[in-house]
């Protein structure tokens, strides 16, 4: 379990993020058109998993905007923004914000992504949502970098994530 905070109040996740050097767990998530996307759909690319509780919060929205801007310049890299928001809410946000360089995916249907990656929040007001994390998967399908943001209202370390590519 990861010990994190929400505005200074202690909460926990159900587990820990996958270790660097290990094979990233396969997943199936829902895209905006309600199709299913798997990790294996992006094989051969560097994959940035930008994971957060909800696109409808300020910090989560900032992380999507930041990665959208940075993703435009990345070669052979895809940014997947993952939350438990409904795909319709993700699509509405992207349309209103002009987000075009990231792929929005939802774990609303089963929550298995959050469980398999050990990042589902276990207790507190955001229980059952995802914690704020970055996981980078290399072209070989192995985890190369992780960041469990210790305070949910803080942004991830974008530079450290991008430098890990």
List keywords for this structure.
single chain; 165 residues; alpha+beta; seven-stranded mixed sheet; 4 helices; 9 strands
Topology:
Elements lengths: L2 E4 L2 E4 L15 E4 L4 E3 L7 E6 L6 H14 L5 E7 L3 H11 L5 E4 L5 H5 L16 E5 L5 E6 L9 H6 L2
If you had to describe this structure to a student in words, what would you say it looks like?
It contains four helices and nine strands; from the N terminus they run βββββαβαβαββα. It is of the alpha+beta class and 165 residues long. Strands 4-3-7-6-5-8-9 form a seven-stranded mixed sheet, covered by helices on one side. A two-stranded antiparallel ribbon has the order 1-2. Strand 8 and strand 9 (143-148) form a beta hairpin. It is globular, with a radius of gyration of 14 Å. The two termini are 26 Å apart. The mean pLDDT is 90.
């Amino acid at each position: 379990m990861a010990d994190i905070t929400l505005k200074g109040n202690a909460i926990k996740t159900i587990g820990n993020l996958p270790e660097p050097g290990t094979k990233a767990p396969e997943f199936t998530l829902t895209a905006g058109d309600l199709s299913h996307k798997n990790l294996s759909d992006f094989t051969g690319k560097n994959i940035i998993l930008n994971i957060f509780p909800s696109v409808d919060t300020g910090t989560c929205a900032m992380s999507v905007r930041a990665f959208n801007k940075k993703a435009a310049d990345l070669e052979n890299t895809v940014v997947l923004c993952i939350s438990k928001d409904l795909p319709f809410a993700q699509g509405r946000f992207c349309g209103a914000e002009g987000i075009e360089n990231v792929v929005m995916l939802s774990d609303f249907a089963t929550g298995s992504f959050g469980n398999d990656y050990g990042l589902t929040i276990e207790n507190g007001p955001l229980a059952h949502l995802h914690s704020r994390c970055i996981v980078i998967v290399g072209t070989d399908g192995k985890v190369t970098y992780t960041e469990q943001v210790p305070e949910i209202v803080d942004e991830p370390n974008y530079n450290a994530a991008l430098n890990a590519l």
